[in-house]
Amino acid sequence: MKIALIQFEVKINQKLENVFKKVNNFLKKAKKENCHLACFPEDFLFGPLDYYQKEEIEKILKQEKKMINFFSKKAKQYQISIIAGTIIRKIKNKLYNSCFIFDSQGKIIYLHNKQKLVPFGFENRYIAPGKNQIKTFVVNNIKCGVLICRELFYPELFQKLRRQGIEIIFIPAFWSKRSSDYLNHKLINQYHFLSEMRVVDVLCQARSFENEICLCFVNACGNLKDKNYFDVLLGRTQVCYPFYGCVKKINQNKEGIIIFDYQKSIIEDAKKAYQLFK
Q1: Long-range CB contacts (< 8 A, 24+ apart) of 249-256?
Q2: What domains can be seen in the chain, in order of their start residue?
Q3: What's the pTM?
């Protein structure tokens, strides 16, 4: 199975139609390379809602159907499965950070609501934790799963998927190396921005090894700023395998795409060698 991981540059207050044009261009590239699946980052359509006023947020929430229809149409047009980053949506007066997965016919085959939320900012104040049962979905006869950003910290979520026979886990993320939220922690010590690079690199490789899976971390990129907030994103979209660790990575905070062929035999060998889930 051939996979495209899109490190998408996030900007605030962009017209959705302009973002859709960029998404379409990336999907064209993925199709040209004969990819079966494309994955986008968390919060990539609008950026975090911390940067918006209440009235603007209400307008964004009303565009949920438009966003879902767009990805469904593109999946069918290009005959490619899509992990559509995340969308903030409103259900019975509660907001959720949701990841939709579309098959190559444009049908929604899985929906994951983020369960482990960031303990500060808009997400902490307004987003409800998901309660959905964590399940797998199948693309080209390969069992896949998805977790969102900070859920990379929680090994028990990976283990739930691994016990269901998962082979690939995708992590759409909006992960900063520096941000106004981090500064507000008022930590005792000062830490270099490399600390965020290290934690992502280490956790991605560790989760791959300890669960005998291929892990695809798909982060946003860009530099966001207004009078109250700022984010300098980490980038670092990457692919990790057992035995090898990281095999592909976009090191910089800049837009790009990773295209790779999933090697099922590595996962089969890892299960034989490590035997961690008998």
Answers
A1: 250/7, 250/221, 252/221, 253/177, 253/221, 253/222, 253/223, 254/7, 254/9, 254/221, 255/7, 255/8, 255/9, 255/221, 256/7, 256/221
A2: 2-274 (3.60.110.10)
A3: 0.97
